[in-house]
Fold this protein.
Amino acid sequence: MKKHNFSAGPCILPQEVIQKSAESIIEFNNSGLSLIEISHRSKDFTAVMDEARDSALELLDLKQKGYQALFLHGGASLEFLMVPYNLMKVKGKAAYLDTGSWASAAIKEAKLFGDVNVVASSKQDNYNYIPKDFLVPDDVDYFHCTSNNTIFGTQIKEFPTTSAPMVCDMSSDIFSRVLDFSKFGIIYAGAQKNMGPAGTTLVVIKEEILGKTGREIPSMLDYQKHIKADSMFNTPAVFSVYASLLTLQWLKKMGGIAAIEKLNIEKANLLYNEIDRNPYFKGTAKTEDRSNMNVVFLLENELHTDLFDSMCKSAGISGISGHRSVGGYRASMYNALPIESVQLLVDVMKDFESKI
Ligand SMILES: *Cc1c(COP(=O)(O)O)cnc(C)c1O
């Protein structure tokens, strides 16, 4: 039986993407060959890479606006250091907003390159809110933030306006909501949260912000080299890029980001309303900062854990245990999760209430 997959990542993908990418492993494009045994320089694959890059820009409404989309290796975690390598001047400065474990992992890497100004942090409150009263200084090389905090279930609803380029780790909410993406100098996202299987990272870059650091950058870490090579500087993660393309095509068919955002809001309202209504559960994130992707909640009484867990298990609900740093539960509701799965979880919560 197919389960209801609330995993935080790697996570649920549209069923048709699973189906089609599985077929491509057996035979790709009626070529008599598998996707994973053809040259990445073959016409069949370069067409995949070109369309994936183009679709990403199209969905983000960034075509013809001076942006490039790349599909790189190394996960979002490698971007934590590629960003300072490519944007921080020698003896330079950068500003960071510390809203969670991933944000602080990015800060740790940036400190290897120069002066890091953490403009605000919600660490003292176990990252249960998004700091809002902060100023980004004008004299920094860039400002870095994390749009959605996968572990703590908070999401930035309003981004600051900065004179320095704004860099955003959107790993866990890319393509989930409409934003003015042209406010950002760099957007990056590991594929495995809302786009595809692990193995590739989407990096969207406003080209004019590059080439200003005076640093020597190793080739594999140099965005300009990847742009020049059309994201084929070395062998790309062909399967992950292809499955990501299929997800982007699926999203376009669904009506793009605006259409999926509506569904995401419906799913989030459905679950948050139940958490707020049901006396046996409580949310952990400050209401105004709650994430529409990762919903983090606790039982009022931990002694009921076994009962709730076994009820979820027999309903076929998978992947909702919370991250060890928060405990409790985390229901991740990425683009591909159908609202029926959320309704089922809500039904189980109601049923649990009646059993206590
Ligand atoms: C999962 C995650 C990461 C780490 O991604 P990797 O691709 O495993 O390096 C970074 N940032 C955020 C916001 C994440 O959710």
In short: DSSP finds nine helices and 14 strands in the chain. The CA atoms of residues 293 and 334 lie 6 Å apart.
